[in-house]
Description:
- It is a single chain.
- 27% of the residues lie in helices and 17% in strands.
- It contains 18 helices and 24 strands.
- A hairpin with a 2-residue loop joins strand 21 and strand 22.
- Helix 1 (65-72) crosses helix 7 and helix 6 (197-212) runs parallel beside helix 7.
Amino acid sequence: MRFSAAALVAGLQVSAALVVDGEQKPLGFQQKPKGTATKGNKQPNIVFTLTDDQDLHLQSLDYLPLIKKCLADEGTTYKRHYCTTAICCPARVSLWTGKQAHNTNVTDVSPPYGGLPKFISQGFNEAYLPVWLQEAGYDTYYTGKLFNAHTVDNYDSPYLAGWNGSDFLLDPYTYSYLNATFQRNRDAPVSYEGQYSVDVLAEKAYRFLDDAAPKPPHSNVEPRIPSSAAGALHRRPTSEEDDIEKLVSFTPPIPAARHAHLFPDVVVPRTPHFNPSSRASGVSWISQLPVQSAENVAFNDHFYRQRLRTLQSVDELVAGVIERLERHGLLEDTYVFYTTDNGYHIGQHRLQPGKECGFEEDINVPLIVRGPGVKKGAVAEVVTSHVDLAPTVLKLAGALGGDDDDDNKKVEEYKLDGEAIPLTAEDLEEAKEKGERHEHVTVEYWGFALSEGRLFGKDATRFWTNNTYKAVRILGDGYNLYYSVWCSGEHELYDLQTDPYQLNNLLAPSSLDSGNTPSSLLGVPFQKVVVRLDSLLFVLKSCKGKTCIRPWEALHPAGNVRDLHDALSSRFDTFYEKEQRRVAFDRCEKGYIVEAEGPQFETHGLVYRDGHRWDQWV
């Protein structure tokens, strides 16, 4: 059998999807794809592996020798890759659509603000990556977790479009390592009680590969509700609702029995921001967290070891996929992507196990790519994000067109907020020389934060409602910054050049009130940097399409500002300091409600035109 296009997606609980095109077409082939040519002028296969909640900063990749051998040593690691919303479903929707969460309006894991029902209601079942790939002539396959709130009750209303073959993990059993439920194609759901879910998923992924050519280390979540109440699995409690402890139970991830003995002495890396004793970090609820007790720390070390143990099954899955691609003679013509939906923290900033924050642990995530022309054993410094992955795959598939003009037209047609990632050594060098690639990541979050660990202390809680913020992460020549504005009005600014663990908020009220903020930053007065970051975030928090990729051009259409260095020119001081609106919220909400989001760039932004201030609202 011969294929020329594939994409496999696997998730920590693991998901897996496979896009295939071949001369023998058991599941139907539409047309010959126009994808990027590979050796021998064959069209590329694309295999995509997506884990769930995998960290980069807690060193999980150091414990995955097969992924190192099969992917990192044979491809390029992108060390500055970011998710844009640090929670499963919004991150996955952004990945599959190439759009920021404020443009998908999928901002939670469950209705009314997120989950599969929100994805469907927003019209994305007809407009996301697998549908576009099929339109380009690709056959597409998937196994594993796709979205939250995809349940044993709603899997067929409607069926998910875009897949020639599928075998989906369904709620409320998505995160049950020993009680998974899968639903294949148009068949009824099937329970795999007592079988290890990652092994079940691996066999399904291998079968797709063999016929047509992961999910750990998420916490183990067991529903305390019947299957008919599957939608309640991710329901967030309010004062009128049941406590979350009555809905589900949380335990550390459960590894396969063959891995349960590994890493007995490993502990969470003891970095300076691990459970700091001198003072709390961050703002809002994070700044109120108590120091974790010795008992608490010991449990979290166990939680960490269980994550590493469960990842061993993913390590084996990836090696199995590579072996099968090689066996079928497809490996040289195949691009293999490996990433995760969001990162994870355990103990940093006194946080219990979880995600949903803007700290590096939660948003800076693994991305490894191998394939034709991709440099082996390389580490790339370019800034990339999840909204860049859909345009990257579409470009490989030939779905964006054959030149820059065609690419731009297709980007507008698909309404993409990202741009294709440079994959080959030549493309990376060109991106470096031209300096045209974006240096920023838009980070946004609405609603709750949730602890997935054990509760310690009589006043302990696992649920916080005030976790709505907008942020920009910007990495350029000589600067490495994170700036955020919360719905509470609190602000954060971290200089990761001098404070890599984000312990010193330069905009903390204590610093501002005492006058202890730095007098300068990046060689200019401190406040000059702050107002420019705020204006950049003002554009990004409501951007669409090209504006998300080139936000400085929205502020300076004359093209005379391409990065933060350019924007710091003193000739723009009045524009930034006096004439720009500031990022602010009208109120805190659980999801994306425009009326609560404060002034928007499209309706309240001042811009330059041809180097001169344009004195009207746009």
